[in-house]
Amino acid sequence: MNIKSRNIVTAVILTIVTCGIYGIYWTICLAREAVSVKDPSDNAVLEIVLMLFLPFLGFFMCEKKLAEGCAEKGIAHKDNSVLYLILGLVGLGIVNFCMMQNDLNQLAGPAAN
């Protein structure tokens, strides 16, 4: 489980400034890190593809694996997968990015932003 803490505001600004290019990179990082909590050997290819083309479903699946991994390791984490699905379906996908990054920052340790 190798999770990097990222500043959420900086990531959103970089996504806007780069016209979404940083957002693609951020998507890949979020998917890999979220899935790695459950299975460090899983390279999250399916989740990455879904997050890029059907983000509501990709975030749903990543959150499911993140919650399952936390439960297996005894880490306190609330499963927000249905919330991710709803937010994605109503067009608030950027909120999903921020929420997932916040969850991953908390797992990254005391140096998290």
Short description:
With 113 residues, the protein is mostly helical.
Mean pLDDT: 92
Low-confidence stretches: none
Ends distance: 18 Å
Report the strand count.
Answer: 0
Number of domains: 1
Order of helices and strands: HHHHHH
Look at the helices and sheets and give the structural class: mainly alpha
Main sheet makeup: none
What Rg, in angstroms, do the CA atoms define? 13 Å
Overall geometry comes to: globular
Counting DSSP H or I runs of 4 or more residues, the number of helices is 6
Helix content: over 70%
What portion of the residues fall into strands of 2 or more residues?
A: under 5%
Index terms:
single chain; 113 residues; mainly alpha; globular
Q: What would your notes on this structure say?
A:
The model has no long low-confidence stretch (mean pLDDT 92). This protein is mostly helical and 113 residues long. The chain has helices at 8-17, 21-38, 45-53, 55-73, 81-89, 93-108. The chain contains 6 helices and no strands. The chain has one domain. The two termini are 18 Å apart.
Which SSEs are present, and which pair or pack?
Blueprint: H1 8-17, H2 21-38, H3 45-53, H4 55-73, H5 81-89, H6 93-108
Helix pairs in contact: 1-2, 2-3, 2-4, 2-6, 3-4, 4-5, 4-6, 5-6
